[in-house]
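Input record (Table S2, row 513):
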Amino acid sequence: MTDGGRLRDRRLVVVSNRLPIVLSRAEGGEWQLERSSGGLVTALEPLLRDRGGLWIGWPGVDEDDFAGFEGLLERFAIEEGYGIVPLALSERDRNDFYLGFSNSVIWPLFHDLQERCDFDPRYWDAYRRVNRKFARVVAANAREGDLLWVQDYQLMAVAEELRYLGLNERVGFFLHVPFSDPDIFWRLPWRSELLRSLLQFDLIGFQSAQDRDNFAECIIRMDMGAQVEARFDRIILPNGRRVDTGVFPVSIDFDEFAQGVDRRSVGARVEEIRQASGNAQIILGVDRLDYSKGLAQKLLGFRMALERNPELLGRVTLIQLVVPSREDITEYNEMKEEVERLVGSIHGEFATHDWSPIRYIYGSWDRDELLAHYRTARVALVTPLKDGMNLVAKEYAVAGPDDGVLILSEFAGAAAQMSDHALLVNPFDVEGVAETIRRAANMESADRSRRMHALRDGVRREDIHWWLASYLRSFEHSLEASQPRTAGSPPPSASRYERRRRERRRYWYSAEA
Ligand code: ADP
Ligand code: G6P
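Output record (adenosine-5'-diphosphate complex):
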């Protein structure tokens, strides 16, 4: 796999709100490092380890306590092979930018949950202020010729702020979350400002064709005089500047998961977990505690599966890991209570003296523990209401047993690649989820193996190195064509847009390819 030409040799500078590590003070007051959770970190970490470079972001530490961890970061850089530039956020930044605009406006909006949005005007100001902060740190650390790559919804205005600072380097962007449906996006009070900010990037990467098209349709709707080319992958601004867009489904480091699961330490845990679960097949769920993950609906589906299929009693156990996330947002806490109430009621209704229908863990697993659970799980239940990609689905495809079954939400970005061989469900359809659980638990071994094999092959082919290479190739093309252009094709008419929607082709993993 080759990177895109000249860009391959450049120093990679990744900019994201969340760093791969979180710093916190241990009991004795000394600093300690923990691994961050979330798909962005899982995806990018192996790339930085592989190529070296720099990662700029927030280590979760308050501005007032921002000193004394330099030695830790230096050791980290030596061990991991890339540098970390930590950026401080004040308490106000954390409240109004991180918990506020990022996670109480953009996160729900982009997951089509507009009723959860809090359009507090203070949040927008904070978003601009903190994006400027990030831009200053990027400008102070970037060298000529660096490959600048900004990640995710928290930092959509960084390129614009870099331009204000006089930095005219080309800057890439990748959105890990979905881009909302245009009708929903239109409710954002700062919709034009945000779209204009995004247009300051040179290549905007999306997880799916749907996300890319939603964005293009918003640009057309804004009627700012930009021309959107018919294939939706190039936008010509009124001043002639060109912005490219592309679809790059994010992935995982195949080798890391495939080899990791063969570690002896993992094998030993697999045995222990098997023994603890007795004769019951394990159904596994791994989710951050987030309303987009559809945890309550998943539990209702599982409960209905047990109610309607008594033959499953004693035969299956759902192990659900819920990873703490954004705990300072009230709605996240309310959701925790709801989930725990449901877990309690399922347990109360069905548990017997020698069988638990459900094991709920609110906390964190290290990589070995996660891999051991993937390997033991007969079925993975991945049912987000909406998700940019969902890397848990891909991790299970690689690390799960050879005859595992993946139940996957049709609203996860991963469904575009995995729908041929996973069992797709509508996560809002509790009866459908229940029926699919029954089907998975009873599926013939040959069918399971064939599906799992195909899923694994797909992730092997389109892993995280493939993702980077395809992004860099597009970036390279956009560099080659970077002469400002004044002419382009006219904006597509509504009917052309509709046609394009109908024609949109998804592509599938297949066992044969
Ligand atoms: P999201 O990015 O919304 O959390 P994904 O499914 O794409 O959803 O990614 C979740 C990632 O978090 C996976 O790569 C998973 O392995 C990882 N993960 C799960 N549990 C932990 C944990 N305890 N610590 C760190 N990472 C975790
Ligand atoms: C998702 C987002 C990431 C984010 C992660 C964890 O994966 O796309 O940008 O880092 O969730 O959320 P947190 O708020 O803890 O960074």
